[in-house]
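Q: What does the assembly look like in three dimensions?
Context provided by user:
Components: two
Sequences:
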Amino acid sequence: MTFLALDILKSGVAFSMVCAVLGLLFAFFLIKAVIRLSAGNDRMRQIAGAIEEGAKAYLKRQVVTISAIAAVIFVLLFIFRDKFTAIGFVIGAFCSLAAGYIGMRIAVLANTRTAQAASQSRSAAMRVAFNGGAVTGLLVVGLALLSVGIFYTLAKHWLGHDMAVKSLVGLALGASLISVFARLGGGIYTKAADVGADLVGKIESNLEEDDPRNPATIADNVGDNVGDCAGMAADVFETYAVSLIGAILVGALTLGSYPAAVIYPFVLGGISVLGAVIGILFVNISGGRPGTVLMGAVGASGLVSAILYWPATHLLFPAAVTIGGIARSAGDLYLASLVGLLMTGVVVLITNYYTSTRYAPVRKIAKASETGHATNIIAGLAIGQHATALPVGFIGIAIFLSYHFAGLYGIAIAVMSMLSMAGIIISLDAFGPITDNAGGIAVMSNLPKEIRGITDELDAVGNTMKAVTKGYAIASAGLAALVLFGSYVEELKAHYGANHRTYTFDFSLNDPKVIIGLFIGGLLPFVFTAFSMDAVGKAAGAVVREVRRQLTAKPGILRGEDTPDYGTCVDIVTKAALREMIVPALLPVLFVLAVAIIKPLGPVVLGGLLVGTIVTGLFVAIAMTSSGGAWDNAKKYIEEGNLGGKGSFAHAASVTGDTVGDPYKDTAGPAINPMIKVVNIVAILIIPIFF
Amino acid sequence: MTFLALDILKSGVAFSMVCAVLGLLFAFFLIKAVIRLSAGNDRMRQIAGAIEEGAKAYLKRQVVTISAIAAVIFVLLFIFRDKFTAIGFVIGAFCSLAAGYIGMRIAVLANTRTAQAASQSRSAAMRVAFNGGAVTGLLVVGLALLSVGIFYTLAKHWLGHDMAVKSLVGLALGASLISVFARLGGGIYTKAADVGADLVGKIESNLEEDDPRNPATIADNVGDNVGDCAGMAADVFETYAVSLIGAILVGALTLGSYPAAVIYPFVLGGISVLGAVIGILFVNISGGRPGTVLMGAVGASGLVSAILYWPATHLLFPAAVTIGGIARSAGDLYLASLVGLLMTGVVVLITNYYTSTRYAPVRKIAKASETGHATNIIAGLAIGQHATALPVGFIGIAIFLSYHFAGLYGIAIAVMSMLSMAGIIISLDAFGPITDNAGGIAVMSNLPKEIRGITDELDAVGNTMKAVTKGYAIASAGLAALVLFGSYVEELKAHYGANHRTYTFDFSLNDPKVIIGLFIGGLLPFVFTAFSMDAVGKAAGAVVREVRRQLTAKPGILRGEDTPDYGTCVDIVTKAALREMIVPALLPVLFVLAVAIIKPLGPVVLGGLLVGTIVTGLFVAIAMTSSGGAWDNAKKYIEEGNLGGKGSFAHAASVTGDTVGDPYKDTAGPAINPMIKVVNIVAILIIPIFF
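A: Here is the predicted structure of the complete assembly.
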C-alpha cells in the first residue's frame, strides 16, 4: 500500500510537471511564431517601440519598489517564521512577477503585429492577438504548477510533509502580496493615464482617443499592458497558486493518510494545461465571429478537462475515502471537480450577459444616457448591483454541491478545477490589451479605415473578454478565500490546541467577537477601494498637469507641428502609480496585524474579519467590475451609431459613465481579489507569532 | 420581593406611559402654536394648499395600497400564528402610519409659516420650522412607547408574560413592514418628482429650482414631505418600537425572573421624552447660528437623559443581577446605556463631518467637479465608502463595550438608549423638508431676496440635519438588528429544542451553510437598492413624459402666460411610486421565505442570511446616504459662489452628482434600515411555521 501510494504520489506530481513543461514549451513556440510575423511599417514599429519602452520602464521600476518591500518581508519571515517559508515567499513573488513580465513583453510585440495582420484579414489579426495572449495564459498555469510542485517536492524531501505544507503558505504569501502590488500599481497606472489623457485630450482639446498629438497617449497604451496584462497575470497566477496550495493544505488535513488527496489537485491542473493547449489550437483552426470562436475555445478546453478528469480521478481514488465521516467514491470527487468547471462556464456566460453590447443591461445604460450624465451613472450603478445576484447565487450553489460531494476538500477541489481553466481564460484576457493597443497603433499610424474597423471590432470583443476574466477571477478568488479560511481555522486549532491546552473557538455568529470581526472585515473592501479610487484621482491629476504644461509650452503640438514628449508622461504616471499604490496595498496587512495585536480582539475577531472581507469583497468587486464593463460597452454601443452615435448628447453622457467605470473596473474592483487572499494568508502566517 | 417586583413593574411602565403622554401633550401644544401663526399672503397660502393637498392625496392612496397588503398579512398571521400577534401587527402598522401622517400634516402647515416668519428674523423662521418638526419627533417616541407599553401590559394581563412577549413580534412586524413601504413609496415619490422635475425643468427648459412654470414643481415639494417627513418618521418609529421590543425579548430571555429587566427599556425611553422636551425648549430660547443651536439641543437632550438614567438604573437594579454567568451591578447597566447615548453623539458628529459644506470631504467633491462630471462622481463614490469606516468602527466598539458591561442585554440596552434620542433627532430631520418647502414657497411666491436668503441658509442646515438623521437611523438599525438576530437564535433554540429534541445549531463560520447564508443575506441590500434605483428611474420617466406633454400642449406655460396642471403630475408620480415600491418591498420577505421553504437550506442558512444582510446592509446604507448628502452639499457649496459658482462648468458637474445622489440618499440607502429589520422579524415569526 505504501509503495503504491508513493508511486501514485511521484507519478502524479511528475505527470503534472510534464504537463506544465509542455505548456511552457508551447508558449515558447507561440512566442517564436508571433515574433516571426511582420511588425508593420516604420511608423508602426516606432509607436510600438515607444509603448514597449514605457512598459519596460514601468515594470523595471515596479520590480525595484516591490523588491524593497519583499526584502523586508523576507527578513521578517526569516526571523519570525522559518527559512523555508521565507524562501517560498521569494519563489512565489518571483514567479508571480515573471508570469506578468514575460506575458507583457510578448503582448507589446503582438500589438503591432496584430495591427499589421489586420491588413490581411480579421481572422489573421484575431489569431495573432489571441496567440500573444495565450503566452500569458500558459505562463500563468505552467509557472504556478512548476513552482508549487517543485517547491513542495523538495521541501517534502527535506522537511517531511507537514513542514512542507506549512512552508507553502510562504509561497502563497509571495504570490499574493506581489499580485496586490502588481494589480494596484498596474491598475492605478492604466487608469491614471487613461483618465488623465481623456480629461485634457478629449474634453479640453477635442482630441480623439489615441490621437498622437496627446502627450499622454503612449502612457495610456502602456497602461493597457501593465494593468490588464501584467496585473491580471500576477493576479490569476496568485489565485491559481493559492488555490493549489489551499487544496494541498485541506487535502493533507482531511485525508492526511491518503497521499492521493495531495496529488489530485496537481493532476487536475496538469490535465487542464492540455485542455488549454487544445483550446488554443481550436482558435487557430476555426473561422467565424471572433466572440464565438473565443467562447468555443473555452468550451473545447473545458470539455477536454471534463473528459480526462474522469479516468484520472478513478486512478487516484480506486477505493472510497472517508471525508467528514462519510465515505466518498471517485465519482463523488469527480462531481466536485465538475462543479468547478461548470462554475467557470456559468460565470463566463453571466458576465458576458451583463457587459456585452448585445444584451439588455448595456443597452439600458445606453438608453439612460439619452437623459444625461446622471441617469447614465444611476443606471450603471444599478446594473452593477444587479450583476452580483447570479454569480453569488451560483457560488452559493457551488459551495453547497461541492461540500455535499466531499466536504471542505470538495470545495477545495472545485476551486482547483475552476482555476485550472486559467490557462485558456487568461489567454482571452490578454487578448484585450493587445487588440486595444493594435487599435491605438492603427490610429496613430493612420492605417486605412478598413484596418481600423477590424481592430475596433476586435477591441470591443476584447472589452467583453476582459470583463469576463474579471468575473472569473473574483468568483474563483471568493471560493479560494473560503478554502483559506478553512485552513486558518485548522491551523489555529492545531497551534492553539498545542500551546494553550484548550481550544474552544467555534466562530459562532452568537459571539459578538465574530460579529465585530465581520464588521471590520466587511469594512476592508470599502475603504480599500475608496483609497484605490483616490489614488487614481491623484495620479490622473499629475498626468493632467503634465499634459497641460506641454500643450502650453509647445502650442505647435496641437497643430501637429511639434511632437509631444511622451516619455515625461510615462515617467510621471510611473512614479505616481508606484507611490499611490503603497497605502491601499498595505491596508489589508495592517488590518490583520491590528486585530491580532490589540489584545481584546484576537483570533476569533480575526476569523470573523476573514469571512467579512470575503462577503463584502465579493459583492463590491463584482458590482464594480460589472458596472465598469457595462459603462464601457454602453459607450461603444452608442459609438457604433446607436441612439445618436458619436458626438450626440447621449454619447457625452456615456463617456462620463465610461470614465467613472475606469477606476471601478480596472483598479479598485479587480484589486479586491488578491487583497482578500493577502488578508487570509497573512492571518494564517501570524497564528504562531501572536496567538 | 414579589410584591416589590410587581410594584416596580407597574410603576416603571406607568412612569414611561406618563412621560409618553406628556410628550404627546407637548406635541399638541406645539401644533397649536404653529397653527396660530400667520400663513402669509394669498399666493403663499395657495401654494402651500397645493402642496398640502398633494401630500394628503398621496398618503391617502398609500394607506389604501398598504392596507390591502396589511389585510393579507393580518389573515396569514391569524391563521399561521395567533390572534394576538395579528392584532399586534395591526397596532404596529397603524401607529407607524399615524406618526408619519400626523407629522406630515403639521409639516405642510409649518412650511408656509416658516417662510412668513423669515420676514421677521432668521431665528423666528428657524423656530417655526423646528417646532413643526418637533411634533413628528415627539409623536414617534410617544406613540411607540404608548403602543408597545399598552399592548404589552394588556397582553401580559390576558396571556401571561411569555405569550405577551411573543405577540409583541407581531407589533414589530407591523411597524417594520409599513415602514419599508412608507420609506420606499415616499423615497421613490420624492426622488422621481425631484429627478423628473430637474431633468425636464433645469436641463431641457432652463428653469430654476422651484420655478412655478414647471408642472412638476408642486410634486417635488410634496415629495419632500412624503419622503423625508412621513417616510423617515415611519422608519424611526419602527426602529424605536423594534428596539424596545427587542430589549424586552432579550431582557425576558436573559433575566426572565427579574421584572426590572423588562421595565428598564421603558424607563429609559420615558426619561428621554423629558430630555427631548428640554431640547425643544432649548431651541426656543437660544439664539445664534441655526446649526449650532440644533446641535446644542441634541447635547442638552442627551445630557438630561444621561443624568436621569443614573438614579433610574439604581432604583430598578438595587442589587447586582447575573447575566451570562457574571454579576452585573447597576453601574454596569448604566454604562451600557451611556454607550447608546455616546454612539448617538458620535454618529451625529461623523455624519456632520462627511456631509457638511464646512469640512474637507464635501469640498473635495466640489473641487473634483472642476474637472468634470466623471471626477465629481468618482470623488463622491469614494467619499461615501470612506464614510463607512468610522461609524462601523464605533459600532464595533459599542458592541464590544455594551456586551462587556452586560452581555446581549447590554447591547439591547445600548440600542434602546440610542433610540431613546429619537425624539430630538427626528425633530431635526423633519426640520429639513419644512425649510426645503419654505424655500420653495418663497421662490414661487416671489418673496423678497432677503427672505429667500434666510430660507436658503436654513435649507442647507436642513440638508445636513437630514443626512445626520440618516446616519443615526442606519447605525441604530444595525445594532437593533443584531439584537433581533439574538432573539432569532433564542426563539429557534426554544422552539427547536421543544419539537425536535436535539438542537445543535451553533451558526459557526466553519459551517458552509452559514457561509451560504451570509452570501444570500449579503446579496439582499445590493439587489434591493438596485431595484429601488430602477424604480426611481421608471417613476421619474413617467414624470418627464407628463411634463413634456404639458409643455408641448400649452406652450404658454413657459412664457408664464398659462398655468401648468400641477395635479396631474402629483397624480402620476403618486401612482408610479406606489406601483414601483411593491417589488423591492416584497424582496426581503421572499428571500426569507425561500430560504425557509427550500429544504436543504433551512434554519442555519437563514441565520447566516440575517447576519449577512446586516453586514453588507450597514455598509451600503452608510455609503449611499453619505455620498448623497455630500454630493448635495458640494453643489450647495459651489452655488454659494465657490469654484466659479452657479452656471460654471463645475456647477454643471455638481448638479450631476446631486442627481445621482438623490436616489442614493433618499430612496435606496435609507430604505435599507427597515428592510434589515423586516428580514429579521419575518425570520423570527416563521420559526414555528417552517422549522
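Follow-up: Residues 271 and 346 of chain B are 21 Å apart (CA to CA).
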